[in-house]
Amino acid sequence: MDAAQEAQKREAFRHLVLNALERRLFFIPSFKIYRGVAGLYDYGPPGCAVKANVLAFWRQHFVLEENMLEVDCPCVTPEVVLKASGHVDKFTDLMVKDEKTGACYRADHLLKDYCKEKLEKDPKLSEEKAAELKHVLAVLDDLSSEELGAKIKEYGITAPDTKNSLSDPYPFNLMFQTSIGPSGASTGYMRPETAQGIFVNFKDLYYYNGNKLPFAAAQIGQAFRNEISPRQGLLRVREFTLAEIEHFVDPDDKSHPKFAEVSKLEFLMFPREDQVSGRQARRIVIGEAVSQGIVNNETLGYFIGRVYLFLTLLGIDKDRLRFRQHLANEMAHYAADCWDAEIECSYGWIECVGIADRSAYDLHAHTDKSRVELVAHEKYAEPKEVEKLVITPIKKDLGLAFKGNQKMVVEALLSMEEKEAMELKATLEEKLEAEFRVCTLDKVVTIKKNMVSISKEIKKEHQRTFTPSVIEPSFGIGRIIYCLYEHSFYTRASKDGDELLNVFRFPPLVAPIKCTVFPLVQNQQYEEVAKSIARSLTAVGISYKIDITGTLGLCWFYQFEPNVVQVPWSFINLIGTSIGKRYARTDELGVPFAITVDSTTSVTVRERDSKQQIRVDVDKVSSLMKESSLMEVLKRRAFSLWPPSRRSGAAFFTSKPYSTVSSPQTPCSRTEREAFRQAVVNTLERRLFYIPSFKIYGGVAGLYDYGPPGCAVKANVLAFWRQHFVLEENMLEVDCPCVTPGIVLEASGHVDKFTDLMVKDEKTGACHRADHLLKDFCKDKLEKDHELSIEKAAELRHILAVLDDFSAEELCAKIKEYSITAPDTKNALSNPYPFNLMFQTSIGPSGSSSGYMRPETAQGIFVNFKDLYYYNGNKLPFAAAQIGQAFRNEISPRQGLLRVREFTLAEIEHFVDPKHKSFPKFSEVSDLELFIFPREDQMSGQPTRRLTIGEAVSQGIIDNETLGYYIGRVYLFLTQLGIAKDRLRFRQHLGNEMAHYSVDCWDAEIESSYGWVECVGIADRSAYDLQAHADRSSVPLVAYEKYEQPREVEKLTVVPVKKELGLAFKGDHKMVVEALEAMGKEEAMEMKANLEGKGEATLRVCALNKTVTIKNSMVSISIEKRKEHQRVFTPSVIEPSFGIGRIIYCLYEHSFYMRPSKCGDEQVNVFRFPPLVAPIKCTVFPLIQNQEYEEVAKQIAKSLTAFGISYKIDVTGTSIGKRYARTDELGVPFAITVDSTSSVTVRERDSKQQIRVNVDEVASVAKQLTDGSVTWGGILLRYPTHSP
Fold this sequence. Notes:
- The chain is of the alpha+beta class.
- Helix content is about 35%, strand content about 25%.
- It has 42 helices and 58 strands.
């Protein structure tokens, strides 16, 4: 097969895969109804499940098993950070433009395409020319802009579409640029990688790790690359998910204690020398590669081995995975060694993971730019005599010579390395002066001998100070997933042999659904057995798909098992059809196992790829599915009767919420509230629950990082949110990009209306939110002015009540009336004017395509409604959900973690027939009693009251059952997280807060030291959003209700006479036609009457912003009777929207309390997190430093890892009381103390009670306690208590 045929075969295979993926909604081109945006894609429900499973396994395989510190940093990054990292100057591709149309192309891609096409398709190509083109391809990445331009001209390469001539190549920076804050003076970018957030936090993370090396920090998050001309489909995109690890290590010791665990792994490697000499990749044992110097060091080798295991366990074919070493021209000047994990697919070999020894470059770069030392220390057992370079600038003489530039010259002198300093010393001694480059001044200055003293002195040192090296594995998650799709895809003949069927052979680890349950025929007994099996699968945390009826419909749901690596999904397929077709459909979704119910006592279990089946007793199905050896069982046995198992069935526990002591009440006075808040915030920052972002650069207002414990709490909250809503409520989860084209947000109203009123300090230009200044003035006067009259106090309270409804003019008048000035300078303020709160950017290189960072996740769901409705079997109601970052460019962020510029939203859009807003499960929440604050009570000055949801709906306080159901589910979610019930209320929006289209809106407000904080909004938004996008995109976003019998209905018919309208309105006639066709029945009939009575009528055309005259000859209006087979309507939307960061902060306050230490001499801090959200589930302490106890502790730690339980092990000699106090302050619910080699004690955090448990049982006990299958009270009944 020649190269052209091979290329055709690969392309045909790729199209098969992509067609299956898009048809089954694994992915969706983003903003499809607006004709999409190149390089942006959404994950549909099954793709979202695969991605979640891959990321969950990545966390298990790396973060948990390698004891890494996970962080979560913002995407918005200030310029100074990326200037230090080199991205502002060097993160570029060379671009050429079509000289007539302005279309942009990557210069190297055009040259690569030309060379490949000539080599593949030109049969007359000479050997010399072919060799030349192959050489160009080999050195392409190393060509300068001049060399690229010369080759493009030499080969006569033109614009692909137009054949027009091209400009010379020039660099285009690939970062999405934006502006942070309202002034426009602070440039920012959307991060091109997650790594910089880790590097700038090194100092805090090193401290968190006990000032010890080595350690690794990890981060999963979105990254952005504003590609010039995206191609290769899902592989080269403008927004993508990265998972990056930064392993900090002593540059003098890059050995790894666990290297032996991977040293015998053998896989394809492609060393630099083999590439240069033209040899192929070869199998090498990683231990040999390190010992022979092919791989630079053990730590790099260890991570190459771990990456190999990760990818192959996911399902990547071992024979199509290689590790390629970077050539010299690919290596950064500072890198010690770099390897890429490349996976072969239809596009060729694709770089999916980079594993690099980056030396100390990154930490040095940020140290130099920020002037904050990012260093580590090695303490010596005994002081050492060392020769030290001593540089002493003579500041007086430098000041006289350089005046205002003195400081920068001093800093440059002090930052010299030894070699440069000694050369300078020699020159000064010989010539009395020397030239010296000062980078911050960008010039060379003359240094005289009297300006600096340079010497070497012998000093005694107690520690060595050094900058750590960094080993960085960086994973392109989207690329890995796409290659997994290709490696998992194949076709096979149907049973009848009349068609080819698609199959994805996903391993159970990543499969979006784990098994299916099918009654062979529609039979009441079989259906009951299927339901029974489904319940048992749920109990052991196995996701499944069940088909028990002949009714059309699709829906997703979930079974939750805490601490399970996979994120299990389920999918009910309610389609009555043959068993063969049902198998085929689920095979195409990659479901590994199918359970067929063909009797009431036993069932068959079918394996997807072999299609082999075994027979199993009904009561043994769930335990069989749980066994990891199922594949081996199937290999050994063909279809046969499965013998009854001798093992006892699994014990199932009912999950119960973990009960804690009652939440502390919010302190009453303002002073007490602030003191309490300060205690919480100080603890959170000291224990690294959060870190002000870019702290070494002075921070950025409104941006915060989640440190390791905060990141774990957030991950646990989101996991429970997904279980409680997305999955238990059968929702369709999607994952859409943050970068959003302007047209989408114009349709939604954000471009025009997502604003706050701003004022500026007229002298300094500092910006302030106008309503905040007025609110602060009113509150300050009410709290501090003891001479305030009753009338004035009433006036100020009224202003606070109606503040959200003030226009710019009213705000301006009040600011002037009260003489409010700038808070810091007391300067006069400008008049208020609107400032749009979205981060604006530009999509693509031309600058003509305006985009924004999304202010909410909801729009990604609305624009996908048509696909999601189809995916749900064209049935309502259904709900779609999304978790992701949102952005709000606050004018003046305040209230700490509550009002930030980047935050995580979790949003649900529940689509429902506007005529039928009842809810089938409403009775499950109707008896819940909670605090509600209806609109009427607020207006009349009444307090909140307790009312059941059922009563609130029946009395018309809550508009409908669906809205009421979600209020109930939100209440359960928040209280199970640990929010105090008596500090949670649901407040109805006042009239002036409601959008004109909203039917009813409620906020879940949580009381904190800041007052009542809106954390969840639950709104009935009517059909506004879908209608807005339908109008703008001209794509109907509608649902259908099929009638059993055709119905006769009266229909309004408006027929514009386009010829007459064209003559009258010329270029505007299209907008007049649209306005006529958009008329409602009442408006149309009124026009008809005027036309018949007067011969003409007026029409307001909003698109023209004027009223026009319509003549009788221009339009025909009538009411016609028609028979309809279905009703077409735009669904309403019920939207619960969760501010995850706000919920977490309130959870911190509700969980925090102080209690006396054991000695009673100090107060110790405690977070009483339920195990559900606790960042670390348990700690392991040897009671004393003892080799045997430490071995037992390590054995327990391994058992906990195997169960997927997060833990912290402390083998230091600190007193046990102090170790308990330290972990109580982190909110760790259980502590395991090793005080013998056979049994240990387990302590509960809040009660401080202890039990004694055998060593071989303790991991199992910890799992039961942390997954909620048993309470502490239940454990006390089973094990003896221990009195310390």
